[in-house]
Amino acid sequence: MPPDVYGDRAARAEELGYDSVWMSETQHDPFVGLTAAALKTERVAVRTGLAVVFARNPMTTAMLANDLQLVSRGRFALGIGSQLQTHITKRFSMPWSKPAPRMREYILALRAIWKCFATDGRIRFRGEFYRHTVMSPFFNPGPNPYGEPPILVAGVGPMMTQLAGELADGFLAHIISTRRLLEGVTIPALRAAREGAGKSMDGFELHATPIVATGNTEEELRAAVRQAKESIAYYASIPSYAPVLELEGLGGLKDELYRLAGAGRAAEMVDAIDDTILETFAIVGEPKEAAAKIWERFGGLATSIAFFQAGDLPPEALQPLHEELRHLVRSDLP
């Protein structure tokens, strides 16, 4: 979604009572889109979900995040992820190695840079992957009155999950995450990492972004289901996400999709996603039904939920889903 359109969409979402707006790094730069959103809103949180940080050095990301925290008056959160090696090296032409250790150092570098801004001090960050050792007053933006933005780390595998629990302020669950994965694997790993770092889960965010295929007409729902199957087929064909499929008893699917992807047979990849697989990894149904399924899958686990929307429905069209989900959340509160 272009940044100018996203700003208007965010303003409408705020009017309808949404708590946050998110933008991922796909066809557009999320920092630009969220700047537009921040300037057109007053209340909603604005968050990258996610920004591809290995496409930038830590100083660049630190400056962008610091400015968005200023523009939004403290409503920004920096959601970050590593992306895949092929995209980093061949699309962004940036180095790739040891993604979890590199991400660890990246986070430490971000916080060292923000500390430098906050204290108007010198920076002496030297790591295996990044070095930041120069900061003159002319280039230092100075203390941010709203403080540092929270850092949310995206992951699927054990190393990135552990890193998120240890160093970050929250975790971004992948869009094909299931309740079985979160309850049996992800949350125990996050809790263990927090405990190992001498931290509790209090205040730690677990954000879910399920694929939601919904619509108010049969035509809208049919189109959304097709797009949801395309998303599942794409992610399920990536080897690094194989453990999610295996956990759901779908280990054979990844081999078939990988073979079809290699042969360029995209239409057959989508056809391989039957209704059972679709319902395993996506939320499907008319808006109120979809809300019930979202809460059944993520209620009691996620601290916040956004929609990876299959289709392009405006906020008004999703309002029945939003209202029903709010009702379910309130009904479940003690």
Automatic annotation (TrEMBL):
Signal peptide: none annotated. GO terms for molecular function: oxidoreductase activity, acting on paired donors, with incorporation or reduction of molecular oxygen. InterPro entries: F420-G6PD/mer, Lucif-like_OxRdtase_MSMEG_2256, Luciferase-like_dom, Luciferase-like_sf. Residues 8-297 form the Luciferase-like domain. It comes from the Bacteria. Pfam families: Bac_luciferase. This is Putative F420-dependent oxidoreductase.
